Amino acid sequence: MIISEHSLNPNSSLWDMDYERLLDSKKTLPGTVSSYKPSSLFRSSSLLSHQGRKSLLSQNLGQKPQEKQLSCDMLLKLSRYVLMDTFEPSLAWNLFRLYNCDREVNLPKIPIHPLKVAQHKVKPFLLHRVLRLLRNMGVLSEAQQSKAFSLLKKQMLKPRKTPLKPKVERGGPCPEAAPHLAPWRPGFDTRRAAVVGRGAALRLESSAAFHSLVIRDGGRLVFADRPRGPPITLRARYILIHDGGELHVGSERCPYGSRATISLYGRAAEGPAVEGFGQKFVGVGRGGVLELHGRRPRSWTLLDKTLHPGGLRHGPYSSEKRWGSRGLNLRILDAGTARVLAAGRFDTHLRPGECRRLRAFLALQAPGRLVAAAVGDSAARSLTLETRLLLRDRLGSRHIARLGYRQPWALVGVLGGDRLSTAEDKREYHGNGTTGLAVAQRDFLTYDGTRFTVTAFSGWIKGVPHNGFKVEVSKGIILHLVDEVTSWLPGDRIVVASTDYSMHQAEEFNLLPCPECKSNQVKIDGSPLYLHIGEVIDGIDMRAEVGLLTRNILIQGEMEDSCYGQNHCQFFSFDTFGGHIKILRNFSSVHMSGVELKNMGQQILGSYPVHFHLAEDVDERGGYERPTYLDNLAIHHCFSRCVAIHGTHGLLVKDTIGYDTLGHCFFLEDGTEQRNTFYHNLGLLTRSGTILPSDRNEAMCLAIRSHVYGDYVPVPSTDCMAVSTFWIANPNNNLIENAAAGAQDVGIWYLFHRVPTGQSEGQYPEGQAEHTPLGVFYNNRVHSNFKAGLFIGKGVKTTRASAEDPREYLTVDNARFRPHQDADPEKPRVPAVIDGLIAFKNNDHGAWARGGDIIFRNSGFSDNGIGLTLASDGTFPTDEGSSLEVTCSIFVGESSNFGSQGGQNSYWGKGPNGEYRTLPRNKTFPIRGFQIYDGPVRMAKCTFKKFTPTVDRYSSAIGFFMKNSWQISPQNNVSQILMEKSVGLKVFFGRSGQWFGNNDNDGDKMSVFHDLDGSVTGYPDTFIGREDNYLLRHPGCLTVPRWNGVMCTGKFAQLYIQARRPENLTLSIARAAYHSHPLRLQGVNRGAPYQQYQPVVMLEQAYIIQWDGRAPEDIILYPINFNRGDWLHVALCYPRAAVFQVMADIYQRRTGTVHSVKHYLAAPSRASALNGTGERLFYFDRASGYLFIHLQAHEARKGHSYCSQQGCERVKIMAHMYPGDTWSCDPNPFPERPAAAQRPMSQHPAAPCRACGAPQLAITSTPSVKYVRIQIQSLGRVDIQNHLTSAFIKINDTVFLFNSRGIFFVVLDACSGAVVSRRHFDTVTGENAASAITDYVQTFIKERSLVLVCSRDIAEVVGSSEMPVFTRLGSAKPIVFHKEGSFAMLGYKGQAKPSWIKVLNHAGYQKAASLQHYVPLKLKEYQCLANADVSLKLAFSQNHSSEHISAEVAAPQD
C-alpha cells in the first residue's frame, strides 16, 4: 500500500488524532469525515499465513520505492503516534513540538528505549523507518539498537497474544443490502416484548412500536435505508442488545442516508427497571453490537464574520408611536450601514413654525442618505406650500403636495434621489376611525453586501393613530463560516455560541434555502438578539463556535409537558426523565457517528445520554481491533450530562456537540479513567444538575442534604458549584482542539481523586492521580464561563459523611497536582504543558492552575476578570518548590469585543475610552491580566494590552491575589515582557477599600516579584514590592505611587518561622535599619499544632522579631530560598530569665527524617555569636531580652526548590520561661546605623527590547495560519481643526503617516504580507482624481492583494460623484465620498471576496473612520503560489521592528 501525503491536512495540528486520515490514501469527501480504524498498514495482519508474513516482512524492509513514498511529514505523524502509544503522551508531544521537517533544532535529551518502540504493533517496515528517524534525531538510546532492528523480523512472525473481539463486518455492501436479511414490518403494539434471537436476521422496513425490544443470541436487526421512502421510527420503552445481538443503522463505509428515529417512551416509576440498565434506554451488554452511522456533516466550525444583533452592524431598528407623535416623523439613515443617524418629529399640523425647523433639518442631511417618513395623527394643516414642494423635490414624493387632514402617509427614499428610488403609500381618512396602514418599504444594500429593508407606516386603527419605522435584514441573514458547510441542509438547526460573559447568549436558528450562498455560508431564519464575534480581536481568536444540531439518525426520549413526581420539580419546571444509552464491559463492538441525541438523560445516577459503564479498555489494549469511538454526535437539550466515561479507557470522542444539558457534560467519573481522547468537541450551555454535589448550584446545594451527616449545612461556594463542560478526573487523558463555550461554573476542570471512588475503589494507590503526568492538552478554547475557563486543582471528598467530616461523599475538596514520572513522587517531575489555550470572556478567571510543574505557553487571555493565576503546589513546608510558568502568551484587559446587554449579563458600564461594554463580576471589580498568588512563578515573552483603570475600577497587567494570607516567593520573576501603549497600569499592589478589604493580610504585605531584565520597570534586576514594606527597602529604592509599589535592587529570600506554645500570636518583624517600621504578620494555620510566618527578607541584614505576647516556647527558623553562604542576623525578644536550648539540623521532608544534628553553644558576646565564623553559637543579652542568632545556609540549593538537596536546614530554639516573666524589649538591639543602599538602581534604564513580548501576533484556533495586524486611522476636517495632524496606516509595527489631503493606498501581497505598493491621490487639486484611482486599482494593483485605504480631509472627488471601482476591492456598491468626511477600507483584489472586507464611509460630523483587523494570510481562497512560504517568513522578519514611514514622499512601488 502507498501512503499518500495528500490525505494530510496542511493546516492540521501537530498530531492529528484522525488515524485513518493519517495513513489512508483516500481523500476525504467535502463535508464528511473519514473513518477511524487505523489502516491495515498500522498492524500486523492476522489474515496472512506464516510464510506470507515472512515474505511481506522481507519486502517491507527491503523496498526503497516504498520508503521514498513515505514523506517526512507523514513519518513524523507516524512517529508521534507510536511514541504516544508506547510511552506517554507528554513525551511524544514535547519532542515533536520541537522537531520540524523544515529546520534543525536543538532537541531535549530524551533517551528513548529502542526495544519498546520495536515492540509496537505498527507494521515492521514502518517501525524500521521510525527507529531510523529517532536515531537521526539523536534521541534513541545507543544500547540495544541492533537488537531492536533485528527484532523487527521476529515481530511479524509472532502470533497474536491478545484475543480480538469478534470482528463486525465493516466493508462490502451496506448492511441493509445483505442478502440474508429478511424484511420485517412488525407494526405497532406497545404491549409486545419483541425478541430478535438466534437465527434471526431482519431488515426493519417500516416504523414500529413495542413495549421492549431485545436483540440477543446472534440475532441481527438492520434498519432499511430508503432515501425516497418514509422515515423509520422505532418506539420502545427500552432496547437491549447482548450475547451476540446486533443493531445496525448504516455503517462506517456506508452511512445511513434516510432519516431514522429511535424513540424511547415511558414515565419515571412506570413499570419495573431492568437490572443494570434502569428504564427508558438503549443498552449494550456483554457480546452486544451497536453500530449507528448516519451522514457525517461538519459537526461545528467558527463564525468568520461578526454577527451583529439583527444581522446589521449597528443592530436593527424599530419604533412605533400612537398618540403624542402628531405631525411628520422622519428618520435619516446611512445607506452604507443601515444605521439611523438622525430622528425628528415636526408638528406641521398645529405649529406653523415647525415647517422652518423641518427645512433646516433636511438642509443638514447629505445627499444620498436614506429617509423614512410617516405621518402621526395629522400633519397637513400648517404644512406650507414651500415645505411641500421641498419634500416633493428632496424626497421624490408624489403625494405630499396633496396631503390632507389626518391622511396616513408613509415614504422611504433617498435624499436627492428621483421618484423611481422612492417607495410611497397613502390612505384616505373617512372619519370612521380605521383607515388601515399606509406602508412604504424598500430594500437597500450595505457596503458589506447585507441587504436590508426600511419600512415606514402610518394609519388609524379603531380611532387610534399609529406610525413607526423598522430597519431589518431582508429575507434571512447569511452567516460567514470558517469551513465549508455544504453538508448543512435547509431545515437543519444550528446553535451559535455566546462570545460574551453569559453563556445564555447562545442562540439557535433554522437554516433556510440559500442558492446564493458560497460553500462556507448559510442563511438563518431568525434575527440574532446578541453580538457574536467572528474575528480575531486584539490578537485573541474570539470567533463564535457554530454547531449543527441536526443529524439524520435521531435517538430521543419522549417527554411529558412538565415536571412530575419525584423528578426534582422544585428545581426544574420541565420533565427530566429522558432516555439513555448504557454500554457495559465486554461488548463486541460499539461505534456511533452522525447521530443526534435529544431529550436524553435522567437526573438519576448512571442514566446519561451516552454512558460507558465500567467497560475498561475499549481500544486495542482491550482486544478491540476497531477501537471504540463516538464521532459527530449532536447531544442537545438533555437532562444529565453528555458523554459519561466511567471506568473506561481508550475511548475516542470526536466532533461531538454537547449543548443545553444538565450537570457535567463530558464526564470522567471515578478518577481511574485514562487514555481517553477528546478531539474537536464542542460543549456549551452547561447548566447545573442535582446528581453530584459538584453538579449543583447554590439552591440545590443547600436543599439536597440527604447524604450529609447530621445537621450539616453545605457551603455552596466550596462544597458544590463546580459544574463543568469537561470534568476530567484523571490527568492522563488527551484534550485536543475542543471548545468549552459556556458553563454555569467552569469550562474545563482537571480534578484529582485522592483514591478512586465509586465502583472503582481500590484500583490505584492513594495519591496516584495527583502524581500522574498530564496527557496532551493542545489548542483548546474556553469562554463565557461563569467561574473559570480552565481550572486545574482540587478534587472530591473520597470518604463517606461522618461526625469527623459531615460533608457529603464526592463534595468538592482540596487536592494538588504534582505530576511525576510514572506517577511516582520519588522520580523526576514531568511538567504539565498547557499549549495553545484561548480563554476569553470568563467572569472570574481565564485559567487557574495549582500545583507543579505546570507550563502555559502559546496561550491567549482576554476580557476575563483575572486572566491567569498560577498557584503553587502548596505553602512551605508541604511544597518542595515546584515551578509554574507562562510563556509566549498574550493578555488583553478590555478588548474591542464590547459585548451586548441581555442574556443574563449582569454588568454594563463604561470602558477606558468611554465606550459602554459588558463587564466581569462587577463594574468595580479589579481586572488583572496575570495574578501572582504565592509562587514561585515565572513569566517570559508575554504581551499585555488594554489594561487601563477607569473611574469605576482598577485594571492592571500584573496584580496580586487579594486578601492573601499565604506566602509570596521572591523567586517570582518576569522577563521579556511587552507592555503595549494601551496598558495604563502595569503593576498594582491594591489599596484598602472594596474588594481589597484592609489590604493588610500577610500575603498582601509581602507581595513581590523580580523583573529580571527591566522589561516591566525599565530597570534590570529589580525587585518590585509593596510601597510600605520596609523589609525590602533601602535608600536606593524608587517609589511608584500609582502601583502602590516600590522598586529595589538587592538579594532577597524568605524566612520561614514555626512557633509553638502558643500558636496564636502576631509576629512583628523589622529590619534593624528601619526598626521604626515593623511589619506585623498574623501567620497562617491558626488552631494547628504550630503557627507559621513567612516574611520576605533582604539577605545579609539584621532583623528584629517580637510578639504581641510572651514569646513561643518552641521556635523553628528555616532559611528558604537561601543559596549556600547566604545569611541573616536575627534577634528574638524573650523574657530576661529565659533559658535556651538551640540546635541545628537538616530535615528531609519526604522521609520525615532528621540528620546532621548540631547543638549551638552560648557565646560570650553578641559579636562573637554573629561573626559568621562557622561556629554554631547563640548569645542571649539578659539586659535587653534579645537572643541573637547567625542564620546561614550551608548546603547548595537547586532550581526552584525551597531547600537544599540534603533537606531543609533549620535552627530550633527551645526556651524555658518562668510564669510572670516580663518580655518587653527595646525596638532595636543592634547598633544604630543608617540604612545602606544596595546596588544602586541603574542610571541607564533598560533599552527598548526587540525580543520582548509574545512571538505570535495572534493566538488563534488555527495556529498554522499567519496573520497581519492592520490599523487604519483616517481624519476628517473636524479632526484636523482639533489639531490631529496625521492619518496613518499601521501594518504590524510599521506605521505609514499621511500629512497631505486626499486618499492613500497601501497594498500588501495577501500570500506573504509584504508591502508591494503605496500611492497618494490628491482629491482636491489632483486632476481627475477619480480616473487616476480607477486606473491604479484596475491596472497597478495585482490579483491576490490586500488593499488598505485611508483618507485625510477629503473633499468631493474630482471627476466623479461615486466610485464604482471600489467594488473591485470588495465593496458591495460604489462609494460616494462625503465632503469633509473620512473614509477607511480594508479590501481585497482577487477572485475571492473574503469575509474580513470592511468599509467605513463617514460624514464630516461623524467620528473619524477608524478600523483595526487581524487579516489572515495565505488562505486557500487566495490561491497562493507554492513559494509564498518563503516570502511570508521574509515579510515577518522585516516587519518585526517598529518604524514610521512618511508614505506620501516615498516613490510608488508598483
Q: What quaternary form is this?
A: single chain
> pLDDT under 50 segments (min length 5)?
1-68, 1435-1442, 1447-1454
Largest sheet: 31 strands, mixed
Helix content: 10-25%
Query: With helices defined by DSSP (H or I, 4 residues minimum), what is the helix count?
Result: 18
Which word captures the global form?
globular
Share of β-strand residues = 25-35%
Q: Give the averaged pLDDT, no decimals.
A: 88
Question: What structural class results from the helix and strand content?
Answer: mainly beta
Kindly state the number of beta strands. Answer: 91
Tell me the radius of gyration.
36 Å
Give the N-to-C terminal Cα separation. 50 Å
Structural summary, described in words:
The protein has 1454 residues and is mostly beta strands. Helix content is 11%, strand content 32%. It is built from 18 helices and 91 strands. The chain has a 31-stranded mixed beta sheet that branches. A hairpin with a 4-residue loop joins strand 76 (1139-1148) and strand 77. Helix 2 packs parallel to helix 7 (124-137), helix 4 packs across helix 7 (124-137) and helix 7 (124-137) runs antiparallel to helix 8. The longest helix has 15 residues, at 72-86. The chain is globular. The protein starts with 18 loop residues before the first helix and ends in an 8-residue tail after the last strand.
